[in-house]
Specification:
Elements lengths: L2 H18 L1 H9 L4 H21 L11 H19 L1 H6 L5 H12 L15 H16 L1 H5 L8 H11 L12 H23 L12 H13 L16 H14 L3 H8 L3 H5 L2 H23 L10 H16 L14 H13 L12 H19 L8 E2 L2 E2 L2 H25 L8 E6 L2 E6 L2 H12 L20 H15 L3 H6 L2 H4 L3
Antiparallel strand pairs: 1-2, 3-4
Length: 513
């Protein structure tokens, strides 16, 4: 294990996190907040800078990182980022419990959007900014940004880090140089974020928040860009005007697409974009889900409390489909009260997630497509042992290893899902009645199996809000400390797609040969 090289990169990450904390510190100064909020950021900035600088001093014997080291480093970075990123929450007093603060911070960096905050109106502007900004940082991946600064001679090391942090079954460079690849990705990411802020600014201010339009537009774009979903006013996006909700839905769907496709558009390869098999599957799922939910809301197959106009039914259907398939977790209404067909559809979307190479979580559309093709091949082989598979994905032949890797990932994913649901069943909150106040009125739900199942699915898929006692108008605050720690690691497992975390905690990783 190349400890000195790991330390140098980890040190760079820590210094970078300290630099990023200057943004919420500036927000605190602009909004003239109390001194404790400025101190809440100054202390971790100083600590991160000092420790990061000290880690730069040892000189590694070799510059190259092997795959095992790259994966372990990735998981280590996310833990360190969370532990230090949670300090402002505690020092400011907005989230005084450190376990709760770490839950909130991991939820931000992993772009999950699950929250333990019950009254968002009591949170300061600087803390609100840091929560939402963390989603944007984690959306593309903090290590992807750091790859810009890794020397070109370490191209192999950079590739291992990119594979460890980037979502999807296959990761590659879109141009020959890694630095150029990461710059292109971040320029596209930044450009789309700025564009969304500009468009949101065209809407009328939210009644009662007239002086906050730019601030809210910025936080909204951070949440959409990172597919995070942290709310910053009561009711998530319920109070937003229809124009803003439509804008958010469109941008969420766009951020759920593979960013490599945007590069192809920029260089004029439009036909190659529309030939993408994953893109076709992605939009087919979105359109089908919107249609199913829209029909269930308009035709009212099942009695439920909310009454929508046709336009509202379509808008809420589009918004929630866009929000949950991209695993953002924003809500425009209380979908907890929707018909079973709609709830089931949204649950399936939480599992599927967005496209590989996007900021969305979940299993990914590409894996679903590959798994279906792999299943078809296996059935054909059973029927005819002489059958020679000719399956393709994105006009490339599907190798047996790729199919097996996808099946292995889905198996691990489901195993972790079941294991975490089992662990949550020990929490004392189970069986208690939770009161929820939403746009559909006040009602009570029992915290039971579906609450635990949907909470686990929401965390491992990085969605955030789930159903029943952890629905869009509830929070995770009722869970005990043990359950919050388990769910915190579940969010990291989902964001890093399991393997980096397993490698980090494997004794063989650190064993000297």
């Amino acid at each position: 294990m190349n400890y000195k090289k790991l330390g140098k990169i980890l040190g760079k990450i820590m210094i970078l996190e300290g630099i990023l904390m200057l943004a919420p510190l500036l927000v605190s100064i602009v909004y003239k907040e109390e001194a404790k909020y400025k101190l809440a950021f100054l202390v971790p900035i100083a600590a991160l800078t000092l420790i990061g600088a000290l880690l730069q001093l040892p000189k590694p014997k070799r510059e190259v990182l092997y795959q095992k080291e790259g994966f372990a480093l990735t998981a280590m970075v996310w833990i360190i980022m969370t532990l230090f990123g949670a300090i402002p929450f505690v020092m400011s007093g907005d989230i005084p419990n450190y376990i709760d603060a770490c839950f909130e911070m991991m939820s931000g960096f992993s772009t999950t959007g699950a929250s333990i905050i019950t009254d968002i109106t009591k949170i300061s502007h600087s803390i609100l900014f840091w929560r939402s900004f963390s989603q944007w940082i984690g959306g593309m991946g903090i290590l992807v940004f750091v790859l810009i600064f890794i020397p070109e001679s370490n191209e192999g090391s950079s590739m291992h880090l990119l594979r460890a942090e980037s979502p999807g079954p296959q990761v590659g460079k879109i141009v020959s140089k890694m630095k150029v690849t990461t710059r292109i990705l971040y320029l596209i990411y930044l450009g789309m974020t700025v564009l969304e802020v500009a468009i949101l600014m065209l809407d009328k201010p939210i009644p009662g928040y007239e002086g906050e339009q730019f601030f809210f537009s910025l936080l909204t774009a951070f949440g959409c860009g990172g597919a995070g979903g942290f709310s910053f006013i009561p009711g998530s996006m319920e109070l937003f005007n229809p124009f803003s909700q439509y804008v958010m839905a469109i941008f969420l769907i766009l951020f759920g697409c593979n960013f490599s496709l945007y590069y192809l558009l920029l260089i004029g390869k439009v036909k190659a974009v529309f030939k993408s098999e994953e893109l076709k599957a992605y939009f087919l799922i979105v359109v089908s889900a919107v249609a199913l939910i829209f029909v269930s809301l308009v035709w009212r197959f099942e009695a439920f409390s909310q009454v929508y106009t046709v336009e509202e039914s379509f808008r809420h259907s589009l918004f929630q489909v866009a929000s949950l398939i991209t695993t953002a977790g924003f809500s425009s209404t209380d979908y907890n009260l929707w018909p079973i067909l709609a709830v089931t559809t949204l649950t399936v979307l939480m599992f599927i997630g967005g496209m590989a190479g996007s900021t969305a979580g979940g299993v990914k559309v590409s894996r679903i497509v590959i798994a279906l093709k792999g299943g078809y091949i296996n059935v054909r082989k059973l029927i005819n042992p002489r059958y020679v598979p000719k399956a393709k994905m994105e006009e490339k032949s599907l190798e047996e290893k790729t199919i097996n890797d996808v099946f292995a990932f889905i198996t691990l994913y489901l195993f972790i899902l079941i294991a975490v649901v089992f662990l949550l069943s020990f929490d004392p909150v189970n069986g208690q009645m939770i009161t929820i106040v939403s746009d559909g009125g006040a009602y009570e739900v029992r915290h039971g199996f579906f609450s635990n199942f949907s909470a686990t699915l929401a965390c491992i898929s990085n969605v955030g809000p789930a159903f029943e006692a952890v629905g869009p108008y509830a929070s995770y605050v009722e869970y005990g400390a043990f359950s919050k720690i388990i769910l915190t690691f579940t969010m990291m497992l989902g964001r890093l797609e399991i393997l980096p975390v397993l490698i980090l905690f494997s004794p063989k990783t650190w064993r000297r040969r």
